[in-house]
């Protein structure tokens, strides 16, 4: 998921609905004059699971009741976003607002001049910059230009079988060496030492590798903007991941669904996933229940017997790095500006807690409160229950260290390219995904240096264009 959003068969159906909806509405999203009654806006959200769509529709209905602005809400599958954005922009059918956008997608829109940054700047001033996490603001800026309104964050995790580690006398998997040693020790015919993504062209594969690479000091570009994906640090990161996948993982293509299925079946000792896995691991979502033998007696067995690591240290890295995602609300260049800004303001105020409550384990607020110095939003998040059919607080299953990792994640995120002023490069790579291609190669036994060189050349080509 750019965000590890859980893929389902329903995604294709929902995308079809979205396309039909777009064809039906056509034209602009509203009157554009902020005149109140009679206005309407089109809103895309990258939340395609039915329960999340229903919850968002309820929030939008409350907004309509308060404002008189009708909202046409269209769920968009993440892996279809770029294609739909391109076709809609060409047809003059962009929505007014898009929610749940990942950092790379924001940069895609920015580089194609599809954002209303003036409206965003005005809205941020109204909301108060001091109410936001500074790291979230920095990651959603291009120089002095605010591209989006950051809303929430998730953090990447290395989840491991704490019970198996303790039984084998292993240290927590916080470094390349510790991960490799544990994978070798625990790998067997019945248990993979590690499962991770390896599908070419998949954002989940890129996210997994960026998490690993950052901890080894591997950057996409340096401070001068030169591509460094073929540096020694990056080759070492590719080699490390290749060893894991070739020697201690399961065969075949691995993605967000298959890796989770292996871990949930008790067939893997380690997995890299996002914080979205936490409620599922506690058996709080019926369409993604753990199936391990021990889970038959205790459905929450994996939650109780798993540890999490948020930062991985490589031998060439100066310090461990935390990888995650900031997701945001954007106002498009073709928007009905006033009602669009009014909607985003609502989603960051009255609608903020209900929006976060849709999936608190993966929607950690980056706005602490509704006024500077206030923490009413983060305080509310800490008390929220997670799950769908069954709900419970995370504290019922996980220790304080896990909860602290979630809460502090947005303050510690490291990402490629953006700190070096090359954020638009992330957008340029959304289509070809050369890093995922390189990961796929090393996972299938190709030379890490050659894979890194090919990926670096593809990045340079994208940068030059």
TrEMBL record:
Keywords: Signal, Sugar transport, Transport. It comes from the Bacteria. Transmembrane segments: none annotated. InterPro entries: Bact_solute-bd_prot1, SBP. Gene3D superfamilies: Periplasmic binding protein-like II. It holds the Pfam family SBP_bac_1. Residues 1-23 form the signal peptide. Belongs to the bacterial solute-binding protein 1 family. This is ABC-type sugar transport system, periplasmic binding protein YcjN. It comes from uncultured Nocardioidaceae bacterium.
């Amino acid at each position: 998921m750019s965000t590890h959003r859980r893929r389902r068969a329903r995604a294709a159906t929902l995308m079809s609905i979205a396309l039909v909806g777009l064809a039906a509405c056509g034209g602009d999203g509203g009157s554009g004059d902020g005149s109140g009654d009679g206005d309407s806006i089109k809103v895309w959200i990258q939340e395609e699971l039915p329960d999340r769509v229903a919850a968002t529709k309820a929030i939008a209905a409350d907004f309509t009741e308060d404002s008189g602005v009708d909202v046409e809400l269209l769920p968009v599958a993440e892996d279809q976003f770029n294609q739909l954005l391109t076709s809609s922009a060409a047809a003059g059918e962009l929505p007014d607002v898009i929610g749940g956008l990942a950092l790379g997608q924001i940069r895609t829109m920015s580089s194609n001049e599809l954002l209303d940054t003036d409206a965003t700047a005005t809205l941020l001033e109204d909301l108060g910059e001091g109410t936001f996490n500074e790291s979230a603001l920095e990651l959603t800026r291009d120089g002095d230009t605010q591209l989006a309104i950051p809303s929430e964050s998730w953090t990447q995790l290395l989840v491991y079988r704490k019970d198996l580690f303790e039984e084998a006398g292993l240290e927590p998997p916080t470094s390349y060496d510790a991960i490799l040693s544990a994978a070798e020790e625990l790998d067997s015919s019945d248990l993979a030492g590690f499962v991770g993504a390896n599908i070419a062209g998949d954002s989940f594969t890129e996210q997994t590798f960026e998490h690993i690479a950052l901890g080894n000091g591997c950057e996409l570009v340096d401070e001068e903007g030169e591509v460094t994906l073929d540096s020694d640090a990056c080759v070492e990161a590719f080699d490390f991941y290749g060893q894991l996948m070739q020697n201690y993982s399961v065969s075949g293509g691995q993605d967000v669904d298959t890796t989770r299925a292996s871990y949930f079946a008790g067939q893997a000792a380690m997995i890299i996933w996002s914080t979205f896995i936490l409620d599922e691991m506690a058996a709080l979502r019926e369409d993604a229940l753990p199936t391990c033998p021990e889970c038959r007696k205790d459905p929450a067995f994996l939650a109780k017997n798993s540890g999490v690591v948020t930062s991985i240290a490589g031998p060439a890295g100066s310090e461990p790095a935390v990888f995650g995602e900031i997701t945001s609300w954007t106002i498009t260049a073709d928007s009905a500006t006033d009602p669009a800004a009014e909607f985003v303001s609502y989603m960051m105020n009255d609608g903020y807690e209900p929006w976060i409550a849709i999936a608190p384990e993966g929607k950690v607020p980056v706005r602490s409160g509704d006024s500077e110095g206030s923490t009413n939003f983060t305080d509310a998040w800490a008390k929220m229950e997670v799950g769908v059919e069954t709900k419970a607080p995370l504290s019922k299953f996980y220790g304080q260290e896990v909860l602290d990792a979630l809460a502090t994640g947005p303050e510690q995120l490291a990402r490629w390219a953006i700190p070096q002023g090359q954020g638009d490069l992330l957008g340029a790579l959304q289509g070809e995904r050369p890093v995922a291609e390189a990961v796929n190669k090393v996972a299938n036994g190709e030379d890490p240096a050659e894979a890194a060189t090919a990926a670096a050349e593809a990045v340079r080509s994208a940068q030059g264009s």
